[in-house]
Amino acid sequence: MSRVVVTGSSDGIGRETARQLIDAGREVIGHARDADRAKELRAALPGLRDVLIGDLASLAQTRALAAAIADAGPFDAVVHNAGIGGGAPERVETADGFERIFQVNTVAPYVLTALAPRPARLVYLTSGLEAQGRVTFDDLQWSSRPWDGMQAYSDSKLFDVVLAFAVARRWPDVLATAVDPGWIKTKLGGPDAWDEVDDGAATQVWLATSDDAAARVSGVYLKRFEQLEANPAASDVDVQDGLLAALADLTGVELPR
């Protein structure tokens, strides 16, 4: 039986991903940012093996979550689903001094990838807005630019694809992919979204578990089981190495070779 961790699984696409994995007979570890959400998740999905707690807006709690994943492992796959949306009217800084969207959407999956034992498969959720993302290494934190919440979100989702492609290149023994789940009817997507939540989870469940040749891929960007062309910056080795170096400098955590 394969074992899978799904971050951000207390609601939305993450919860549906965990549910589909459980229904498929997988052993699943969920994740919630606090004890109340963990309790709710356990009640909603009693088939979970466990729920780990950690607020990804905190670097210390993200490090602790990586240690908890290590203690609960080994795992066959980790689905990096957790994330927050854009559109915030002003820049919000976390206690660690990071811009919040950047920390949750980019820093957290990087730190978890670097510190938790590497599984056979890593799936990173991105967004179609990655196509509008821009690489600005001299101001990743939006500390000197006029604030634009949607651009900050688009940038963070591009960085998720860059991270997936960088990990695929650095770790040839791991299948690392990025998935656009689509515009899904969740709290984040809103009621006007086009697609249902089960559609938004299906591709990452397939990538995390399937033995189909089409699922055993690495360094690619997918939506609805099909490979798409990502933002060209994601395939730029200099961009990949630049992001890894910037994240290592900001967090003090190096991605192992």
UniProtKB/TrEMBL annotation:
One of its GO terms (molecular function) is oxidoreductase activity. SUPFAM superfamilies: NAD(P)-binding Rossmann-fold domains. Keywords: Oxidoreductase. The keyword Nucleotidyltransferase does not apply. The keyword Oxidoreductase applies. Belongs to the short-chain dehydrogenases/reductases (SDR) family. This is Short-chain dehydrogenase.
